[in-house]
Each structure stands twice: as structure tokens, then as C-alpha cells.
Amino acid sequence: TEKLNKVLYGLSRQTYLPERIILLHTRDGIKLDVSACKDRVSVTEIPIPEKEFDHGRTRDLGIRMSDADIVVMMTQDAVPADPFLLEKLSEVLNEHPDAVAAYARQIPDQNCGLLEKYTRVFNYPPKSQIKSQKDLPKLGIKTYFCSNVCAAYKKSIYEEIGGFVKKAIFNEDMIYAAKAVEAGYAIAYAADARVIHSHNYTNVQQFQRNFDLGVSQAEHPEVFAAYPSESEGKRMVKDVTAYLRDHHMSGRLPHFYIQCACKYAGYLLGKNYSRLPGKWVLAFTSNKEYWKQNRKDV
After folding, report:
1. Residue 66 and residue 45: Cα distance in Å, rounded?
2. Distance (Å, rounded) from C-alpha 194 to C-alpha 196?
3. Is 53 helix (H, G, I), strand (E, B) or coil?
4. Which of 72, 112, 207, 216 could cysteine-pair with 198, CB 3.0–4.6 Å?
5. What value does the mean pLDDT take over residues 79-92?
6. DSSP letter string over 72-137?
7. Reduced to 3 states, what is the DSSP secondary structure of residue 191?
8. d(Cα 289, Cα 268) in Å, to the nearest integer?
9. Banded pLDDT at 82 (limits 50, 70, 90)
């Protein structure tokens, strides 16, 4: 709740003020400090029962409730780094007619670990980029990379191509981006639009998160079969290994490799979730409600 209040405060101090904040949440009795938004931005709270939450359907509900031309999706822990976040996201969409979505750069929090900081830099470099079909041979799956931690969408095109999938354990943003690219549109990475967002996941949490990632890819072969993400994972391992060695921190490599092993094990099991007993799936996932909604044997 404390971080969410920071998000609301940051949004109410933007150079481009949002017309409306639609807050969809699954927590009962959530205590928000909306005083920072008073007389600046209206906040509409929409409680969602946890058993009804879905990464795709719930976000789609939020977008369709908005009457804005550009809708920004954010998670509750993505704190605007400065007052220019919404301005920069809007600018890139207005400057590039083919771009239908623009996602922000994620800056690591000061208290996150070294490896998490490097991962953020790896996935969110300081240079902006416009990605389209012509980039698929070079970028592969990275062409579809987009993050709803903070991303802006042109609503008219969103509705035109069908929006987010209505059932998604994870990756609804990349699945939409792939659909948009295949339809001839582009995805923008706006490096000068910045949010503070990072995690300090345990190895178990890394395993569970990557299990869900593998499930999302297995459920959408039309997106991920032609451009598997394993190559990006290998590239990151090589880059981090070189970084640690070059900075005389080889002692951190065993921890990093254990972390990678947990991620890869979760990912492989997730890609093969249909072969696993329901009780295993429920133990491996970080989203138990998804399986209670969509699988009978859990």
C-alpha cells in the first residue's frame, strides 16, 4: 500500500496529468492516500475478487472502462521516476504513427541486489527503440517484448486488433505486442520514460515466476514457437558472467548460476505443464487462482 500511494502521488505530479486513474485491485480494505490526487486527478477504485482476477481479462476491463485516446497500464509497484513519464510515453506514440504501444524503462530500486540491477539494465537499456516485423530476423522474440509494469496503448488500435487475451497466466503484454506486430504495427521502447521497479526474488520465487512464464509460452505457440526465448536467456547468462568476472566479482557466480538453474527448471516444467499432475502444477505456480479457474484436477 505504501508503494501504491507513491505511485498515485507520482501520477498526480506529472507534466501530462492523467484524466482519470482506474484502480483495479483484489485486496479488501485497502487503505489509499488519495489526498495527493485531490483536485488534480480522479481515482476510481474497482475491487476485483481474487478468484476472478486474470492478467489479461482484468486489464482489458480497465482499458475498456477508459474513454482516453491513450491508456497507460501500470502495476502497483511501478513508481514514476520523474514528472515526465506520461509525457514521454505519449510523445513516442504521437511521433510514430505505426507504434501502437510504448513501454517504459524500469530503473532498479536502490535496495535491490546486484544481479537484479544488471538484469534491469539488460532488459531495459538506455537507448530507445521502435520494433516492427522487419526486426524479427535480428531481434527474434525481443521484437515482441513489452511490459505492462508500465506501458501505454493507443486505445483505438487496441480495440481494433482485439486487445489482450482474456485468459492469461502471464505475458498478456507480449502476446498483444506479437499480435500488433503481425498486423503491421510497431512496439516502442521509450527509454526516457522511467519507472522505479525491481524485485528481490528468492530462488523459489524465481522458479515459480518462470514456471508461469513457461506456461504462458506453451499456451500460445502461435507467438513463441517460431521465436523461442531460450537464446535471450543464454545471452544474459553470458553477459552477466562476463560482467562479474570483469569487475572482480567471480565469487558471486555460484549464486548467479543457482538462480539461473532455478529459473530454467521452472521454465522447462512450465512449458510441459500439461504432462504434470495437478498438485504439482499448484505447487510450482505463483498464480494458484489461475489454475483453480482453469484446471479441474487442482
Report:
1. 13
2. 7
3. coil
4. 112
5. 97
6. EEE-TT-EESSTTHHHHHHHHHHH-TTEEEEEEEEEPPTTS-HHHHHHHHHHS-SS-EEE-GGGHH
7. strand
8. 21
9. very high
What confidence tens digit (pLDDT) does each residue in 57-81 have?
A: 999 999 999 999 999 999 999 999 9
How far CA 6 is from CA of 34, 58, 84, 267, in Å, comes to: 10, 22, 15, 33
| Separation CA 261–CA 40 (nearest Å) | 47
- Residues 161 and 168: their CA atoms lie apart, in Å, by 17
With residue 66 as reference, give the H or E element that holds it.
Answer: none
Query: What pLDDT shows up at residue 226?
Result: 87
Cα(161)–Cα(154) distance, integer angstroms: 11
Angstrom distance (rounded) from CA 128 to CA 281: 38
- How far is Cα 194 from Cα 184, in angstroms, rounded to an integer? 27
- What pLDDT is attached to residue 77? 92
Render pLDDT for 118-176 as a digit per residue (tens, 0 to 9).
888 889 999 999 999 999 999 999 999 999 999 999 999 999 999 999 999 999 999 99
Contact present, 192 and 125 (Cβ < 8 Å): no
Read off the pLDDT of residues 7-31 as tens digits, 9 standing for 90 and up.
998 999 999 999 999 999 887 666 6
Query: Contact 211/170 with Cβ under 8 angstroms?
Result: no
Residue 31 CB coordination number (10 Å): 9
